[in-house]
Specification:
Blueprint: H1 6-15, E1 19-22, E2 26-32, E3 35-42, H2 52-62, H3 66-74, H4 79-91
Antiparallel strand pairs: 1-2, 2-3
């Protein structure tokens, strides 16, 4: 499985239009037409690889698979494709996890 570190994830989310807000954790929100469409967060700390467990939690927050999270961060998956996959999972009855 491909590993991702915090810096890669932050840069990838920002490239896809997610905006960072600093609180206790680094929250990333994606807004479309003024409406929040998706959110996830990373802990503050040194640049380290995220475990598969944390990538799984991020995938659930974003409403997509771990593979799709990696593709979203590494750029094969566009923002539009991400939103379509998220919508498809929602239609299939997959729940989105909300942390924080």
């Amino acid at each position: 499985m491909v590993s991702l570190n915090q810096d890669e994830i932050e840069a990838g989310l920002k490239r896809k239009g997610f905006r960072q807000s600093n609180n206790k954790h680094k929250y990333y929100h994606l807004y479309l037409n003024g409406k929040k469409e998706a959110s996830t967060y990373l802990s503050h700390g040194k640049n380290q690889d995220l475990s598969q467990k944390l990538l799984g939690l991020m995938a659930k927050e974003l409403g997509i698979s771990i593979k799709d999270v990696v593709d979203l961060i590494k750029c094969p998956l566009s923002t539009e494709e991400y939103l379509a996959k998220r919508k498809d999972r929602s239609v299939e009855g997959m729940k989105t996890l909300k942390r924080g």
